[in-house]
Predict the 3D structure of the following.
Amino acid sequence: MKTKKKILFLALPALVTLLTVFIIPMIYTFIEGIATDKLDFYIKFCTDPFYLSILGNTAILSVKTTVLCLILGYPTAYFLARTQSKIKSALLIATIFPFLISAVVRAYGWMVLLGSNGLVNHFLMAVGLVDEPVKIMYTEKAVMIGLTQLLLPYMILSIMSVIQSIDSNLEDAASSLGANPLTTFLKVIFPLSAPGVVSGCTLVFTLSMTSYVTPRLLGGAQYLTVSTFIYSQVKTAFNMPFANAISYVLVFAILLFQVFSNSANHYVSKKVGGV
Amino acid sequence: MYEKKKINWLFKLITVIAFMIILAPMIVIVIVSFNATEIITFPPQGLSMKWYANIFAENSKFVDGFLNSVKLAIVATLFDIVIGVLASISVTKYSFKQKGLLISLFTSPMFIPSIAFGFVLLQMTASMRILTPFLKILIGHIIIILPYIIRNTLGILTSYDWTIDDAAASLGANPVKVFFKITLPIIKPAVLSGALLAFLYSFDEAVISSLLTSAKFTTLPVQIINYMEFRFDPTVAAISTILMAISLALMILMDKFIGLDALTKQ
């Protein structure tokens, strides 16, 4: 009895805060929305191809961003985990530093780089790849580049921590038994690092699905994601019940994905032999 | 061995590309902030400090926004350190049935999109006149940054040896004294690194803030976004450069006193 009281006393402040201003309002708003408008606005969202395409585009964008982060992040994580080079700590700092920098600032940097007068277009024209500036800003490409830069450090750190825990003797053992480096990588290192890949991908996908600042600044009104669409429904269309419905579509999509990734995580760690 | 070299070479190349992508926008911002012309060109046509002066110009609200953001982030972080550390102790010191449920509750704000939570707050607080925009945004930030502090603190507390506390208590120290003299000094690095991440998350947060902001009260990130909608001159680059310098300073301080290891464990 005494222990129970102690637990409650310690947990109470956080519990009360979370319940009163987060959990209960989230549930209440959902129920109230259904009570007043039934499922009208959910049906509106799910039957109109335009609205559905925003959700679809956001999911495709997030998958592309995740794949890009994995392609760039895996080799980087491997290099960082295994290198004995002097620049290792400098590179680690370069990986962590972006966590401390605002998404607004980082998107602004891309606006300078990707604009029709920006460095990337100057470079493309100077090399002769294109004759006139290509439109990158306010397209899926711009948002994808921005998100990749924003989320790549998460992927690198997730994978790096797992590779660091893999005994490097395993690689020597595989090669002494005659496996070539590619086989060693594909049959030994990659499977063992799968838990890091799963958690990195989960993080990157979730964060790109819900990101707001990057799509707002780099996608603008021309390339909408679910988040920027909700915002425009609130601030410019003033269609609150509709914004409410889309918000909960996004919430449930993310929760569903979490359930899926949890079981993927479970499956992978079981295969690897438990981490 | 030839093949091994090829793979190594490929991995190194991709590493270089990855860091180019990570660093490019940040380097470009610093260069552009010293650009002499209003139209952003690259490379810059001459050097100038006028964009830095522009931040502090009379009608600019950037300084106000900066102070508002700092205030919000400090209050939210301090509040969450208290409730977060207590909550973390409750689920690590004792073992009980609902422990897992409690931990997922404490970290649940991580899994809810900020835009959805911000919109819920907007609807719930619309009719509450007593709540100023500062308080509304503060409530939002207190919730979304809590998981950063709790996760970091939980990380260190799961390997914490609670018998030290019992030893201190058996020697006559009361629970409050045990906490401040024994527990807190040991978990301080993790709490501080969590607090740094939480502080910066609140300081940089733009989703909940843009939904709940008013004409009288805005935060710096919202102000920057609004400014960019009307003008695209290097003033934002100058502010961004200052913000990056502050983050760099915080990171160096952190590295000096507690090490960066805690930050890499996301």
Chain A has a mean pLDDT of 92.
